[in-house]
Amino acid sequence: MLNFFLLICVAAFAKMEKIVFPNSLRAQKIFLRNYKFADSDSWFCKFCRSIPTECPAQKIGLPPMCKLNPLYDKCCLLKMKADDVSHQDDVIALAAFIQ
């Protein structure tokens, strides 16, 4: 029951963000896209490497909620940059090209 409630809340927030506040997370998206890791030993780099590549909700049989998260793509980009710190400029250039 709690999982269903969380799914409804996340879906409502995602719809509200797209309809009512379309640019509310613009600064956060730009920050996450342009962030560069100084070294691969920082705690934030290690934390970003722990971001799951697939939605954890799918593992327990729920519909994927990650796609409802407005920052999901930027978090995946941050994980890609953390995985290979030496080539993070290439990842940033690729992300700018795709968008």
How does this structure look, described?
The protein is mostly helical and 99 residues long. The protein has one domain. The protein has six helices and no strands. It has helices at residues 2-19, 26-34, 43-49, 56-59, 72-83, 88-98. α5 (72-83) packs antiparallel against α6. The mean pLDDT is 75.
Structural key phrases:
single chain; 6 helices; mainly alpha; 99 residues
- Name the beta content range: under 5%
Gyration radius (Cα, Å) is 15 Å
* N-end to C-end Cα span: 37 Å
Overall morphology:
globular
Into how many domains do the coordinates divide?
1
Number of helical elements: 6
For the sheet with most strands, the description reads: none
Uncertain residue ranges = none
Q: Encode the helix/strand succession as letters.
A: HHHHHH
Structure at a glance:
The protein has 99 residues and is an all-alpha fold. It is 62% helix and 0% strand.
Write the layout of secondary structure elements.
Elements: H1 2-19, H2 26-34, H3 43-49, H4 56-59, H5 72-83, H6 88-98
